[in-house]
Amino acid sequence: MVAATNDDNEELFTFTCTSNYADVTKILQVPKSKLGTCIDSGASCDYLPDHSKFTNYRTIYRDIMTADGRIVKAIGMGDLTLDLPNRSKTTKTVFKNAIHAPGMAFTLL
């Protein structure tokens, strides 16, 4: 999945592959905390399915339109702090105003 937003009219939009990985993870009962992350996904907004990783969380209700016409719900936003690999160490990185979209199969950065 690759996501983007159109800031001119504040709509959220995402491109998606033909397989519905969110459904696959649900069927396999993969905990949201174990889902992968796509870094440099081309997203102009950061999307995250796992509510527990947010700080400064606030509720929103917006639709994310996928390229194949499906709708994924955005239900909140906030800051996301991740320790990203940086050679043999990690670097704490904050992603401001990330979108909480529980229907996403992966975190998109």
What can be said about the biggest beta sheet? 6 strands, mixed
Content of β-strand: over 45%
Q: Please trace the helix and strand order, writing H or E for each element.
A: EEHEEEEEE
Shape: globular
What does this protein structure show overall?
The protein has 109 residues and is mainly beta. Helices cover 6% and strands 52% of the residues. The protein contains one helix and eight strands. It has one helix at residues 21-27, and strands at residues 2-6, 11-15, 37-38, 47-48, 54-66, 71-86, 89-100, 107-108. It has a six-stranded mixed β-sheet with strand order 1-2-5-6-7-4, with no helix packed on it. The longest helix has 7 residues, at 21-27. 24% of the residues are buried. The model is unreliable at 1-6 (pLDDT under 50).
Identify the notable features of this structure and list them briefly.
globular, mainly beta, two-stranded parallel sheet
Quick recap:
This protein is mainly β. The protein has one domain.
Describe the protein's topology.
Elements: E1 2-6, E2 11-15, H1 21-27, E3 37-38, E4 47-48, E5 54-66, E6 71-86, E7 89-100, E8 107-108
